[in-house]
């Protein structure tokens, strides 16, 4: 089963990020028509008219809800629920993610091609990723978790009269499968990833 996403997703992967440890492949496998994975320093040239955002807590980052409100004030129209899958009606048409450890992401973010993009931040939620990152809190999400969170927030912000009903939940299919396998082998309370602080 392949997904059709409402926007395009680009994932910029650090060259030292091991494919087997990354969840970027989960997204690309389940939504191959809408997801591209690039290995840094390979970054596409983005057209500023394309409504591209970088999902990263960079300078001047704003929430997705605030971005949608600004878009509505500018355009004066709100997408109808049945047309939420049409990128032309959404405040963004493409979202860029950095796939790396937190320390590695800072180096990639210094690239002017990414710094030129407006940044959005996601609402904080606890990660269920089993991979431990030293000195990182539980709300640092795996790439597939972050993509899923963006899509849910985008849906909620653009269709205020329609509750989210699990349209993108299957995007976590491979993540859930791996989570179950890990927990078959190890006890949840023994995994270092789940002992990280919440702040």
TrEMBL record:
Family: Belongs to the TDD superfamily. DTWD1 family.
Localization in the cell: Nucleus
Protein name in the entry: tRNA-uridine aminocarboxypropyltransferase 1
GO molecular function, one term: tRNA-uridine aminocarboxypropyltransferase activity
Reactions that this protein is recorded to catalyse: a uridine in tRNA + S-adenosyl-L-methionine = a 3-[(3S)-3-amino-3-carboxypropyl]uridine in tRNA + S-methyl-5'-thioadenosine + H(+)
Role: Catalyzes the formation of 3-(3-amino-3-carboxypropyl)uridine (acp3U) at position 20 in the D-loop of several cytoplasmic tRNAs (acp3U(20)).
InterPro entries membership: DTW, tRNA_Mod/Golgi_Maint
Organism: Timema bartmani
